[in-house]
Design a protein that fits this description.
The chain has 2 domains: about 230 residues, no CATH class; about 90 residues. A hairpin with a 4-residue loop joins strand 4 and strand 5. It is an alpha+beta fold.
Length: about 350
């Protein structure tokens, strides 16, 4: 059986890579056709920057995106060919069970899953950061972040809170600023300012028309002034937490960011949780998609490979649809992000088990 295992595993990986290498050039060709005028318009843009900074990272991103589709189509094509050539009939005649027949397929799925996990958690976010920086500089005039924020509150630790009525992210200035320090539920100190400016060169905030109120048991002390340079345990980047692109953060950075945001009282972090959870759920889906593809193509049909391929693409379309709906629902405030991200795998996992039971018969 070892010879058959290696044969299936080899064809599994080769067909998967072949399918992926077909999809990637198509995506690159379509993207070049859409953006060629923008590339030629900028005189300072070099071919090296387009090829290395953009398209190398473009290929990394879309290779990772197309991986489940390429895997599914590749397994269906290869297994359908085995069925049409009656090779599976010979395997069954050798008293090889359907479960044992699946072993090399799951070995291949494990390899692809490991690669996908590594890419999702570490390589793709780093690649996306370079690609999106290129897009921001040469392809898109608008910034990803909003120009300003309104009614912003931030919890720095268990006792310190910050509030801003408005902050302009472009000018790094805001107004109606206050920070309060509590001892339990008792207010101990309050600092307010009419205006606040961030001086990036010195890494300090400049407060205008500021006032400090310190509260003691029997009296209050109030100090005020026209301007004051001071530091806080935050920068303007912390004001923009809602607009940070989660796709550009590696998983350790994303986990740390979520923990810090929770400690600071951020209300809805589901968008970031969805991004974090799907980096694991999509690679794990390799096992589910492999089982479904083998079960659909295991038996020889009158329609041959074309019928199996049509069935497979239909199933894949439904899976992708469920996946996108789950991501949207998971990003809504109050939703269970973990459950929503894994629901498509649960539903199609149940479908895969149903096909597996029928396949054993």
């Amino acid at each position: 059986m070892k010879i058959l295992d290696w044969y299936i595993l080899k064809r599994y990986l080769v067909t998967f890579l072949f399918t992926l290498l077909i999809l990637i050039p198509i995506a690159v060709a379509i993207d070049i056709a859409e953006k060629i005028d923008k590339f030629l318009r900028d005189e300072n843009l070099t071919f090296y920057e387009v090829a290395v900074d953009y398209y190398v990272n473009f290929i990394i991103y879309y290779a990772n995106t197309f991986m489940p589709l390429a895997l599914f189509i590749g397994v269906i094509l290869f297994t359908s060919r085995l069925a049409n050539n009656t090779e599976i009939v010979a395997v069954n005649g050798s008293q090889v069970s359907f479960t044992r027949f699946l072993f090399p397929y799951f070995m291949g799925a494990t390899i692809v899953c490991f690669v996908a996990l590594s890419m999702n958690h570490f390589f793709v976010p780093t690649s996306s950061k370079v690609r999106k920086a290129f897009e921001k500089k040469y392809l898109k005039k608008k910034k990803y972040a909003d120009k300003s924020i309104k009614e912003f509150s931030l919890q720095l630790n268990d006792s310190t809170y910050v509030y801003l009525q408005r902050f302009d992210l472009k000018r790094n200035s805001g107004y109606n600023f206050s920070t309060e320090i509590y001892d339990g539920i008792q207010l101990k100190q309050q600092l307010t300012a009419d205006n606040i400016n961030w001086k990036e060169k010195d890494s300090v905030f400049k407060l205008y028309n500021w006032k400090i109120r310190k509260i003691f048991k029997d009296r209050d002390s109030i100090f005020s002034g026209t301007s004051l340079d001071t530091t806080f345990a935050f920068t303007p980047k912390d004001f923009n937490y809602k607009n940070i692109l989660a796709q550009e953060m590696r998983s350790p950075e994303l986990i740390k960011f979520i923990e810090i945001s929770k400690s600071r009282g951020a209300k809805n972090l589901n968008v970031y949780l969805v991004e974090l959870y799907k980096r694991t759920s999509l690679p794990v889906a390799c096992y589910i998609l492999t089982l479904i593809a083998v079960a659909l193509a295991y038996k020889k049909k009158r329609g041959g490979i074309g019928l199996n391929l049509a069935l497979g693409i239909s199933v894949m379309f439904v899976y992708v649809f469920f996946l996108k709906v789950a991501e949207v629902l998971g990003g809504v405030a109050g939703a269970n992000a973990l459950l929503n991200v894994w629901v498509p795998n649960m539903v199609f996992g149940a479908y895969a088990i149903y096909l597996y039971i029928n396949g054993r018969k």
